[in-house]
Amino acid sequence: MEIDEFVSLARRWPVLEALREGPLDRRDLQARVGVSRPTVHRQMRVLEGAGLVSKRNGAVGLTPVGELAATEFARAFDAIETTTALGQVLPWLPAEAFHFSFARLRDAEVVLPRPNDPFAPTRRMLRLIHAADRIRMVTYTFLPEGNPATRQCFIDEEQCFEGVFDPELVDTLRADPASAAHLEEQLAQGTRIAVAAESVPIILTVADETVIVGAVDEGGSPQGLIATDDEVVRAWAEETVGDYFERATRLTPADVGVRAVSTDSGT
After folding, report:
1. What is the pLDDT of residue 256?
2. Residues whose CB falls within 8 Å of the CB of residue 139, separated by 6 or more in sequence, listed in order
3. Pairing of β 203-207 and β 261-262
């Protein structure tokens, strides 16, 4: 297919999309697509000429080839949408830490903040974490201060949580009485939390089979979230979390206000 032919058909994608649910008469098709009758007529003529639609019993429907084309166009537009969203998140991510091809993220879920919902990425992360049985996390920050859920514990007793925190994050938690008390409570319940050996540049979570990568700006405001169950990305994430744990220092309840003990003892 020549590029100009592809562009011509792509411009008529709304018609193909409308017909994916089944045949429509011209009036219903016009209403569904939201264009004038002459425009629908012209688009139908092009699509009929390409063998993608046909008239049946007074209605217009996709041919078998049209169904295939509609499916492939849907995939292409989904990929373009994902790629565009990834481009907006990438500036806030340590891309050099991702030891896999970004092509593995073609089917990823990308959540961006919206003007009327600036915490959309954070809330999606919480939903994914709430639904998981096991959570493993490496992070340098928690939820932004402006989010009402910041002080809400998002780990249930039935869940298994393991986390490696940036040293500055641990100091911040220790300095806040409420956060320190919550941290001590989690440690007393057996939650495995350790202090990273060096500064952590990434917000990475493995929630069951799902890998979650968070992105925030310098002020801590969420700039996006990437979630994927791609097996290659998951293998990278598990290895990354494991590497951080090997070099981290594990916390105990007594260490919250005092010191940390090595993960080599009592792990």
Report:
1. 82
2. 163, 164, 165, 166, 169, 200, 202, 203, 204, 205, 214
3. unpaired
Q: What angle do CA 121, 125, 126 make, to 5 degrees?
A: 120
What confidence score (pLDDT) does residue 255 get? 82
Q: So what's the architecture of 3-74 in CATH?
A: Orthogonal Bundle (1.10)
- Domain locations along the chain: 3-74, 93-262
Is pLDDT of 219 > 50? yes
Residues 6 or more apart in contact with residue 21 via CB below 8 angstroms: none
Distance CA 45, CA 7 (A): 16
User: Residue 237: enclosing H or E segment and its boundaries?
Assistant: helix 231-247
Q: Give me the CATH code for the 93-262 domain, please.
A: 3.30.870.10
Record the pTM: 0.75
The answer to whether the CB of 227 falls within 8 A of the CB of 128 is: yes
Which pLDDT band, with edges at 50, 70 and 90, does 259 fall under? Answer: very low
